[in-house]
């Protein structure tokens, strides 16, 4: 008998098959047992009818507990009532391992309890769906960039430099030297873009940020494309096409998961390029009109500001040209104004906040040298980076998309802690 995955059942209707599975949930009476089975690839209902199976099989169905592992044999049948569309008419159950008072039951549990049991919580239907959405976004990311001539480049994680400011660095010893966990691979991606033209990275980044919000992780994964001979306006076009592509891919390939998550699809279906662009100046003016008296030109936006701006649109919105003073050292000045830079943050709808930060980079040697000095960065640590603007410098632009914020937005999860398998938060390194 063929051993298959639950996700393969549509190809095996009418056949008797064998699956490895855990019991997710169960309902039973004297004559029939309904087993919610999961195998990692999906969830299916197994129906055990007392009159149709040997006595020991029905006894096993009655005895198993939530998360008991087993091999189950049965016939795949179509079932219009289930979201999956199929069920298994069980003919045999072979228990592999018992479960011992599985702590996460179908009742409500508090968030801290679930976070303490994250190693088990991942097995639940909603968490499973979010991980599937995450995987689809990663798959679609490779598809998008590989399809457009980008080369995947892996920047180092142990570094001596800090693109996004020195206040949020994780420090470690590198033998006798000081090192930091990467907060962004950007500077290395710029070097790589000068070698390979268009590059993208996908890897973990670290921020020792004492923020405890639904948008902040200490360790998060970032996709960082970088493009030579590319001005900022062209980079914005790549960004909106990329975001349209990942949202479209999830809509096409994760229908079951979005259903489980109860996601409002009409909101996602509107995410089509082009996205609106407003300047930082316009954003400040808009906020003042909306009654936000707390913010002044030159301030960075907080979550309530971003949410108010995003609520005005049904698509993600670019806020362009932020003040030079609140952005990192490497950003290209606006051609007509000294006080703003050629950059943009992409703000997701529905209160999910900034999902992309990007900019054109300085490629003038003197200006870059001056900025490194102004920001009190160690000239030795940045010597290699500065050298890039001496060796055939070209206009170049890039951006970083935060994977977890994007997963949270697309899957409708209320907090980024659910969009990464094992979140690192301000007060959490366990499990
Ligand atoms: O805006 P950020 O800091 O930009 C950079 O790091 C640039 N060097 C990227 C580049 O141009 N190559 O971060 C980029 C994105 C943010 O828009 C956000 O989505 C995500 O990374 N991000 C976080 N996600 C979760 N937790 C945090 N603490 C995050 N900090 C940034
Ligand atoms: Mg940012």
From TrEMBL:
UniProt source species: Bhargavaea ullalensis
Gene that encodes it: asnS
EC number: 6.1.1.22
Catalyzed reaction equations: tRNA(Asn) + L-asparagine + ATP = L-asparaginyl-tRNA(Asn) + AMP + diphosphate + H(+)
GO molecular function, one term: asparagine-tRNA ligase activity
Keyword annotations of the record: Aminoacyl-tRNA synthetase, ATP-binding, Cytoplasm, Ligase, Nucleotide-binding, Protein biosynthesis
Family named by the database record: Belongs to the class-II aminoacyl-tRNA synthetase family.
Entry keyword annotation includes Cell membrane: no
Chain segments annotated as transmembrane: none
InterPro entries listed in its UniProt record: Aa-tRNA-synt_II (IPR004364), aa-tRNA-synth_II (IPR006195), aa-tRNA-synth_II/BPL/LPL (IPR045864), Asn-tRNA-ligase (IPR004522), Asp/Asn-tRNA-synth_IIb (IPR002312), NA-bd_OB-fold (IPR012340), NA-bd_OB_tRNA (IPR004365)
Keyword Aminoacyl-tRNA synthetase: yes
Aminoacyl-transfer RNA synthetases class-II family profile domain sequence ranges: 131-431
Name of the featured protein: Asparagine--tRNA ligase
Chief site of localization: cytoplasm
HAMAP family hit by this protein: Asn_tRNA_synth
